[in-house]
Amino acid sequence: MSFVVESPQVQYSSQHITSQYKYQTSRVKNQNGKLKVTPIEEEIVFQTERKVPRIGCMLVGWGGNNGSTVTASIIANKYNMSWHTKEGIRNADFLGSITQSSTMSIGMSEEGKEVYIPVKDILPMVDPVDLVIDGWDISSLNIADSMERAMVLPWELQQKIRPFTQNLQPRPSIYDPDFIAANQFDRADNCIRGTRSEQLKKIREDIVDFKTSNNLDKVIILWTANTERFCEVAVGLNDTADNLLNSIENDHSEVSPSTLFAVASILEGCAYINGSPQNTLVPGVIDLATQKNVFLAGDDFKSGQTKIKSVLVDFLVGAGIKPVSIVSYNHLGNNDGKNLSSAKQFRSKEITKSNVVDDMVESNQILYKEGEKPDHCVVIKYVPFVADSKRAMDEYTSEIMMGGKNTLVLHNTCEDSLLASPIILDLVILTELCQRIKMKTCNDSEMQSFHPVLSILSYLCKAPLVPAGTPVVNALFKQKACIENIFRACVGLPPMNHMTLEHKMNLASLPNQISPVPSMPVTKKLHQKTAINGHTNGHANGFTNGHVNDVMVNGH
Questions:
Q1: What whole-number distance in Å separates Cα of residue 231 and Cα of residue 228?
Q2: What phi, psi does 464 have (nearest 5°)?
Q3: What would the DSSP string read from start to end of 98-157?
């Protein structure tokens, strides 16, 4: 759905959307125990390129459950495929994608109703069916056979997709048994040999070949392969770009395969996204990306249990309820679960899952003393029978008023790759869009890009990577609001504040926009039939609180 913003602060040309935006925030100083708050306003010019380029995405781990599923889903949507289920005919969709299947408000209509548009329509974005997909995998199976091995999609749909995927062959990838579990050895029949320097060179050649042979404007690289163990981070090893490149040249054993892919991507000017929990993006990688002005994002897809946790803990702490114990158990049977059954690889996942509540806890000094945190335990078990259908069970125990306890228990059955695949699409689509957004303040002589560490994508990641010195935000609604409000700024719209004062008072700037709410009787017992009168908020007659026909007002 197309729309246009009518404002002298917004200009549309054939090349750009340009908005002059007033960014309002506040600064707080502690002066002798008293907090002094100063409102701040900054003029920022946003400029967004309107032309959507031809985009390629290279997946590391293309033949895995996520890689084969997202490829198949793009094809199914591109060709409007459908298939039979026991409930009837099902059509291809992109459910779970915030760009393709969620909406955002752009304001109020003349009737006083909020108007929503698809997120994908707020700014020009890549259509996922136009993405060109390629990638690497340590397994030589083609994508059709990989899709069958994954056992994620229905058989009938697989047969319809197979003609489009049986000739899609993953490029050889890097296999280092020191970084992934030993149980992956039987899949590793498609590997790049040689030293780390030679492997880096081959990856770069693959990127160039893919880009030129498909006539692409941009390529984005995304890691969706096995979780690695954490690598060592040390001065002289990978603390700077130069030291990291020297370590690669010297074939240092602590340079992981995922870091090699990240370095290759940066050297070829391609954004790199880490979809797994390991510490791929070591300081040397970030330093190199900053020098080359290339985007990085990560870490680890936030799809199921952790996404719910980032909502629920935010709600509890915001409600003044104190979570004191969070116990999270998972079992799954796909290859991700098999790899995570190894202790070192599980530790990488445990770290990203455990840190997700930290910022929410630290936001409430009434509930938590400095350094105090809830007990937080994460367990993952490998159960082959359940395959991609992951089970997640959580117990949240909280302290409530006057020494009381409250326990919430959740059971979540989720098809892992069908939750991760739309996140992959969103990460690629939003990364590419951010490459087309430039901005400047009144002090800037020329436009600047976002910081190379693309923290705007935190909503999609368990352990958000942020620039040095930047607070980490895990609360899901804050993360989503960040994305939406930045995009609103790009088209000259104010941030969503949910005040809706036009419904709470008469605003001189909005004459005759909304019919006034009639005064409410204060002593009369109301007997009314169920009716909708235009002043409701989920209640039938506008004056009720869950009771339709018999309302007592002021105790009468």
A1: 8
A2: -60, 130
A3: HHHH-EEEEEE-TTS-EEEEEGGGSS----GGG-EEEEEESS---HHHHHHHHT-S-HHH
Q: How far apart are CA 553 and CA 526, in angstroms?
A: 8
Q: Are the C-beta atoms of residues 202 and 194 closer than 8 Å to each other?
A: yes
The CA-to-CA distance between both ends of the chain, in Å, stands at 50
Cβ partners under 8 Å of residue 533, min gap 6:
541, 542
> What confidence tier does 220 reach under pLDDT thresholds 50, 70, 90?
very high
- Separation between Cα atoms, residue 28 and residue 30, nearest integer Å: 7
What confidence category does residue 504 fall into, taking pLDDT thresholds of 50, 70 and 90?
confident
3-state secondary structure of 333: coil
Residue type, 514: I
DSSP state letters, 451-501: -SB-GGGGGGBSS----TTPPP---HHHHHHHHHHHHHHHTTPPPP----G
> What's the pLDDT at 539?
44
Instruction: Give the sheet arrangement for strand 271-274, strand by strand.
Output: 171-172, 132-137, 55-60, 218-223, 271-274, 296-297
Q: Collapse the DSSP code of 158 into the 3-class scheme (helix H, G, I; strand E, B; otherwise coil) and give the result.
A: helix
Residues that are catalytic? 300, 349, 390, 462
Identify the band that residue 510 occupies on the pLDDT scale cut at 50, 70 and 90: low
C-alpha distances (whole Å) from 419 to each of 65, 68, 144, 518, 542 are 11, 13, 20, 47, 39
Tell me the β-bridge partners of 173: 191
* Under 8 Å between Cβ of 508 and 501: no
Take residue 414 and report the two structure tokens written for it.
């989720």
Give yes or no for a contact between 426 and 98, defined as CB atoms under 8 angstroms apart. yes
Instruction: Say what the pTM is.
Output: 0.86
On the question of pLDDT at 552 being above 90, the answer is no
Instruction: Give the three-class secondary structure for 440.
Output: strand
Sign of CA dihedral 511, 512, 514, 518: positive
Q: What is the token pair recorded at 142?
A: 């083609």
SS3 307: helix
Name the 3-class secondary structure at 545. Answer: coil
Backbone angles phi, psi at 153, to 5 degrees: -90, 155
